[in-house]
Design brief:
This protein is mostly beta strands. It has no helices and 9 strands.
Length: 135
């Protein structure tokens, strides 16, 4: 009997974003968190919400490759990648690119907001490429 083909996105992972300022000492309530994915050059909006008084989003459910794919040696498609954008007035916009989300796991994404200089209003952003961070 042939092996059943596993769908590339038949798993479910979760994402929670924690937004703070002042070296993680101050949670930011009301920050806008936008989660997107890019497929074939097209960006798709998956979730948009505001942080609560603890600076956290609700848990966001996202499609992922099934964890069974990680059991095959050499398989590099064991997680999904998502982009996260965080906006809050008076702070740089922060974009986290290629944030990994695994099947059956809650990925926690801390986001440190940086205040804009006094004479700046908006339009500035900080981009963090998650796949280039050394662990």
């Amino acid at each position: 009997m042939p092996n059943a083909k596993i769908s590339q996105n038949s798993g479910t992972g979760y994402l929670k974003v924690m937004v703070t300022a002042a070296d993680n000492a101050l949670p930011i309530e009301g920050a806008t968190v936008t989660v997107t994915t890019v497929t074939g050059g097209n960006t798709t909006l998956l979730n948009k919400q505001s942080t609560n008084r603890s600076g956290e989003t609700e848990r966001i459910e996202l499609p992922t490759p099934p964890k069974e794919l990680s059991l095959t040696p050499g398989n590099s498609n064991t997680y999904a990648k998502y982009n996260i954008r965080v906006d809050f007035p008076g702070y740089y916009t922060v974009e986290n690119i290629d944030v990994p989300v695994f099947d059956g796991q809650v990925s926690m994404q801390p986001t440190q907001m940086i205040p804009l200089p006094l004479n700046e209003q908006s339009g500035k952003k900080v981009t963090v490429y998650e796949d280039q961070i050394e662990l």
